[in-house]
């Protein structure tokens, strides 16, 4: 289920010293947005707020008719598990589990049926059929990333949140990672939000929110 995303008046506070204020977002269902800005401008923090992993000090995040901050934590978590996929910058794979088990675990947590078969299918779709039983330590960085993407998309989320997808990759692999994400989002008809320092990634997405600009730089689908 992909839904429009709207934020209003968002701010986040870390202790007394750091307060981050965000421009309002207004994304149509199925949009693709790059969040850019200098180090420390609050990109990852915004992704965490959009995922419901971090409570803002003020403001609202709404997915369609659901106001994420207004529902109890259990409902927020259930929504996150069913409808969101998150690819962390350093992947957050379980080191003791194989590629297949990592993706399967994500599906079990999401409450999906036939988690093993679906995990296998997701990995095969991402050309990892020959790495199903390898643990992360025995995979290349690009392969680990594909496992992380497979885990994020296998349950069919309507929203895919991705943090620095090309940070660890050379130019060719970065392009492949970008195509992988765009393809996965298109397959799912999902909204894609990507935090990135990489101009190639930012240019490939139709909408951009630049947190470092004096006033937010808006392209299609982002309103302030
Ligand atoms: N858990 C935390 N406790 C205190 N301050 C934090 C915490 N997480 C982030 N910050 C601060 O909030 C600000 C924004 O951090 P954030 O990681 O969101 O920025 P970013 O734009 O993603 O940076 P980078 O590009 O370096 O990853 C920074 O000043 C950072 O030091």
From TrEMBL:
Keywords linked to the UniProt accession: ATP-binding, Nucleotide-binding
Limits of the ABC transporter domain: 5-222
GO MF annotations, alphabetized: ATP binding; ATP hydrolysis activity; transmembrane transporter activity
One of the record's GO cellular component terms: plasma membrane
Protein's recorded name: Putative ABC transport system ATP-binding protein
């Amino acid at each position: 289920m992909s839904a429009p995303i709207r934020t209003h008046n968002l701010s986040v506070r870390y202790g007394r010293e750091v307060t981050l204020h965000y421009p309002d977002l207004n994304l149509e269902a199925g949009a693709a947005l790059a969040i850019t800005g200098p180090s420390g401008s609050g990109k990852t923090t915004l992704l965490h707020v959009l995922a419901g992993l971090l409570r803002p000090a003020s403001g609202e995040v709404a997915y369609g008719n659901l106001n994420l901050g207004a529902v109890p934590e259990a409902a927020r978590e259930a929504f996150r598990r069913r409808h969101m996929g998150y690819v962390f910058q350093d992947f957050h794979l379980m080191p003791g589990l194989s590629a297949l088990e990592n993706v399967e675990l994500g599906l079990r947590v999401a409450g999906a049926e036939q988690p093993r078969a679906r995990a296998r299918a997701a990995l095969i779709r991402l050309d990892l059929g020959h790495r199903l039983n390898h643990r992360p330590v025995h995979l290349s960085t690009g392969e680990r990333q594909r496992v992380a993407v497979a885990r994020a998309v296998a349950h069919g989320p309507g929203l895919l949140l991705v943090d620095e997808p090309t940070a660890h990759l050379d130019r060719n692999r970065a392009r492949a990672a970008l195509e992988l994400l765009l393809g996965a989002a298109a397959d799912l008809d999902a909204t894609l939000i990507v935090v990135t320092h990489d101009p190639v990634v930012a240019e490939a997405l139709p909408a951009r929110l630049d947190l470092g600009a004096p006033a937010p730089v808006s392209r299609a689908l982002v309103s302030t």
